[in-house]
Amino acid sequence: MVSISLCMIVKNEKDVIGRCLASVKDLVDEINIVDTGSTDNTKEIVNQFTDRIFDFEWIHHFAAARNFSFQQATKEYILWLDADDVLLKEDQEKLKALKDSLTSDIDAVSMNYHLSFDHEGNVISLLRRNRLVKREKQFQWIGAVHEYLEVGGKLLDSDVAVSHLPLSHDHTRNINIYKRLVESGEPLSPRDTFYYANELFDHGQFDDAIFYYETFLTSKLGWIEDNIRACYKLADCYSNLNDPENNLSSILRSFEYDIPRAEACCRLGFYFMQQSKNYEAIFWYEQALVIKQKTNVPFQNKPFTTWLPHLQLCVLFDRLQQFELANTHNELARTFLPNDEKILHNKAYFDRILNKGNEKS
């Protein structure tokens, strides 16, 4: 069995840090907490789990803080989490099994990161991140914000998942770090350019976001997954600016990087749906359902391959008065969201229409 050091950076996390540490305390051999300036009782809560608490002066650079946290580790492997992350019971068991079976030739282990959930508790979006790394390899974090852990060697994709369960979020922190970098004249890497564009988009600064998405894409230095997501984000920018022509061209631009994905198909379906081009919209939503999802893709948005295309097909076939087909798709959507109000409303609507039709016959 390998030994594991948990390494975390925290600041004012009193509402979530206890929940996080309680979910992992029995699975790791050491807990190292680096505090970057808490003014609440975060440290007092952490002290119930470990006395290995270290201070690090915040210099507006996440990678620097995370690298310092890794330097405190003394065990064979390092596991990192954020304070608002949790290992659910099933994943605690999976991590325990991984710890028992992991061989020392593995340099890094990736885990799914469950980012958001619907009201049924189903995972909506997820990505893969390298979570457990061999300490002796001295892998480094890179990036002032939206930092990433650069790894190499023999890698393992595990079935363990970390669940992101935030209670609150500082919406200005990341964009302010990026603006400080830009104002200082420091050039942004392609990755930082993409994430800065995302922050601008999230703050409704769509024209500036378009500029940075275009800068990122024209550099031709981006990761293919970020390139595709940048195209989708550009489409969203133009949608918010009421520019359907550039919205469409941005969706189609994603085809330069890969075959059409379910998300692109749904976006095209919605584009035609808004213009009442029902048959064209139906074609694209049906494509979203038949496209096979690649295994272990880095980013997944579940609605685009599950309930969303079915629900939109329900609306489209209803427009065409093909009520049985519409009802079929509504029922398929209901298998994913059995308690959704809209879907249940549709069910009652189709029950009335189809029963009337049966009475007449």
UniProtKB/TrEMBL annotation:
InterPro entries on file: Glyco_trans_2-like, Nucleotide-diphossugar_trans, TPR-like_helical_dom_sf, TPR_rpt
Positions of the Glycosyltransferase 2-like domain: 5-114
CDD domains: Beta4Glucosyltransferase
UniProt-listed Enzyme Commission number(s): 2.4.-.-
Sorted UniProt keywords: Glycosyltransferase, Transferase
GO MF annotations in UniProt: glycosyltransferase activity
Keyword Transport on entry: no
Protein name: Glycosyltransferase
Annotated organism of origin: Lysinibacillus xylanilyticus
Taxon lineage: Bacteria, Bacillati, Bacillota, Bacilli, Bacillales
